[in-house]
Structure formats: structure tokens, C-alpha cells
Give the backbone structure.
Amino acid sequence: MSHWPIKVSLFINYFVFAILLNSVGTVILQVQRSYQVSESSASILEAFKDLPIAITSFLIASFIARIGYKRSMLLALGFIGFVCLIMPHVPTFFMTKMLFAATGVGFALVKVSVFATLGLVTNDSKEHVSLMNFLESFFMIGVLSGYFIFSGFVDDLNPDSTSWLNVYYPLAAMSFAAFALLSFAELDESRIAPSKTRSPTEDFIDMMALAIKPLVLIFVACAFLYVLIEQSIMTWLPTFNSKILNLPASLSIQIASILALSTALGRLLAGILLRRLSWFKVLFAGLLMAAILVLVVLPMAGMTGDREVTGWLDAPVAAFIFPLIGFCIAPVYPAINSVVLLALPARQHASMAGLIVVFSALGGTTGSIITGHLFEAFGGTTAFYFSLVPISVLLLTLYLFKRNTDKLSATCSEELTPQPTH
């Protein structure tokens, strides 16, 4: 059976939700302009996106195999396409919250299904790690595309305009196109078909038992911290560009796309490096580079003054260099996800994917809300200096994660080694 049609479909599904999910930074800037919402109030949009992701993943991960991975993804795509069609007709902050809540529910269904499906369409660990990195890099290409798609609908001359809401018509069309593509892709889910003798309650209890394993607990801490770092920067970068670097709104959104591009390139390069180098060395080096970048570039942001910026050519250097932090931290998330999934049998991948999504969502919400309040209270430069704290803690938790995976590998090797007879 050829896996290419379903693999292509997974990439497209991820692409659509990448645009919707990571538009939150752009939308936070726009609701401040269109609806006169404060920074701290606008930051709640991250919670409306991430908490439904966490709650939905927690509730469905243990029995999503009973629904079916393909059926779950189709449900998510159809649902979000319908909500996008409604969005331009209800131009309110409340409807914006509801859009992100719907996006969160849909993405939970898609991400758990996608992560669990990878084990069904790959043949070995190297293929799994490689496909995970390429999938996550394509996700970032979707994020990158989203910045330019949204900026094309922003009216710089009329801050109160809600014309940017028309962007949701093409996004609805993308969702329905992805739905049609997935409908024709074949996916054999017989390997993970749940036992008829087991109840959903037993599956849920098994997921809870999985969550308290030492390896999983340390992994959860790593995933939480990584997403806290990534989302706090990604969500607030357009506002940082606009309010600290004095860029026009549309240019603030466009230049923020450098973060997505650098992250995509970082994951593509990691897909090559991780075939030859230890994942821990690659990730540790990247995080150290990220910390150095924060310390070197943020002081430059305070030197821009009040000069007017009209285009890419006269934007301050800090606007181009700081987003390169995405390149440094890019390999962390797909690498740790692949490592923990490969440490578990295929039947537990959906439950583990659910836990990944839950704590990633909680990390994203925490990072965005903290950064939003720091931004309002102390300014954008101080808010971004905060990223040094979770970067430092993540370095420690990655070390503990490696120790645990090494112990697990050693235990498995001992169990497989024939014992001498006497």
C-alpha cells in the first residue's frame, strides 16, 4: 500500500491549521487597532486557542482510535471551514474569541490524529524522525504564508477598519479543499483498532498511567517549556515590531514572518543533522545560541529612536536579526516528540500525542499571557528578555530527558541480549 497520498494530506492539513493557529499574533495586533482592546485583554486570545486544544486533546486522545484518525481530521476541517465563513459577518472581539476556540478544538483533533498516524505510515525510527521534522517544518511554512496572507488584508491608513476579516474567506476555501483531498486518501487503521473487550474508561485510565511515567513527566516539562518560549515570541513579535520598533502594522506582520521562515529552515537542516549527530548535542547547542541572540540583539531594539519606517529597506537591523531565534530553537520540538513516541508501542501513540498536545497548549497559553502582561507593564524589550528564564530551565530538563531515554535504551538492550547458559 502506497502511503504518499495520506502523507501529502497530513502535510496539507497541518498547513491549514498552521495559518489559523499562528495568526493569533497578527489578530492580537488587529483587535487592538479595530476594537480598541488593551494588550493584556488581547492576550486572552491565546488562551481561547490553547485551552480548547488542551481540553479536547485530554478528552479524546485515549479513544480517538475508536473514532478513527481520518474521520477525526475530516470533522476538524469541515468544522473550521464553516466557522471561517461566519467570521467576517460578525466583526466583534467575542467572535474572534470563538474563532480561536473553534480552531483549538479542530487542531486538537488534527494534531493527535497526525502524530498517531505517523507510526502507521513510516517503516523505521529514522523515517519517523525525518518525517516528523519535515512535517513540523512544513507547519512553519504555513505560519510564514499566514503572515503574508493576513497582511494583504490589513488597512494601514484606517486602523479601525475590519476589512482584514475578509481573509477568512480564502481560509475557509483552503479548509474545504483539504477536506476534499483527505476524503480520497486511504489510511489503513487496522493496526490500532481497539479491542472490543476494552471500554473507553479503561483506555482513559491507561493514558493517565502513561502520564505519570518518569520519562513522560520529564518530556512534558520539555514540551511545555519549549512551546512557552516559541509562542511567547511568535505571538507578540508583530506587536513588538509595531510598538517598539515603530513599524507600520502591515510591515510588522510581514517582518514577523522571518521567525517562521527561520524556524522552518532550522527544522529542515535538523532533519539532515539528526541523521548524523546526537539529538541532544544539536538541541543543546541551539538553545545556547538562542540565549546569546537574546542578549546581543534586544539592546539594539532600544537604539531605534522614533524614526519613521515605511518599508523593508529602512527597517531597523533588530527587526531582521531577532526572529533568527527561531532557527536556533527549531529542532527542539519535533526531536523530543519523535524520541518519546519511538520509546512507546504504536498503540500508545495516540494517548502520548494527546499528552503532547495538552501540555504544548498549556505552555503556549502561559507564555503568551505572561508576555502580554510584561509587555503592558514593562515594555516589549523587557518582556522578551523573560525568554532567558525558560531557555535556561529547558537546558536542564533536556539533560534529564536524555538521561532517562538512555536508561530506557540500556534496559531494552539488556532484555534483548541472550543470557549465557550454565
Observations:
- Residues 214-243 form the longest helix (30 residues).
- The CA atoms of residues 271 and 412 lie 26 Å apart.
